[in-house]
């Protein structure tokens, strides 16, 4: 499994709805609200045999209320 972090910027007033929809899909390891430029951050494990971008598009990025995302790939844990 490949660990990636995805930050979500939500449309005004939609953060809680987006968070609930993400959580309901049961595919994120952790989900937090954040301060700053983005509203939420999720820790996601993508199967090794899947293309990260396509997997995220199919499983997360179609949720209504998301206006922008930022995906950070990880390479090694220390």
From TrEMBL:
Xref: Pfam families: AsnC_trans_reg (PF01037)
Limits of the Transcription regulator AsnC/Lrp ligand binding domain: 6-76
Name listed for the protein in its UniProt record: AsnC family transcriptional regulator
């Amino acid at each position: 499994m490949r660990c990636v972090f995805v930050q979500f910027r939500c449309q005004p007033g939609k953060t809680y709805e987006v968070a609930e929809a993400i959580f309901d899909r049961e595919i994120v390891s952790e989900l937090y609200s954040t301060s700053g430029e983005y509203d939420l951050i999720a820790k996601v494990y993508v199967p090794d045999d899947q293309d990260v971008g396509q997997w995220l598009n199919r499983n997360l990025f179609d949720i209504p209320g998301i206006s922008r995302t930022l995906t950070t790939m990880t390479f090694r844990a220390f």
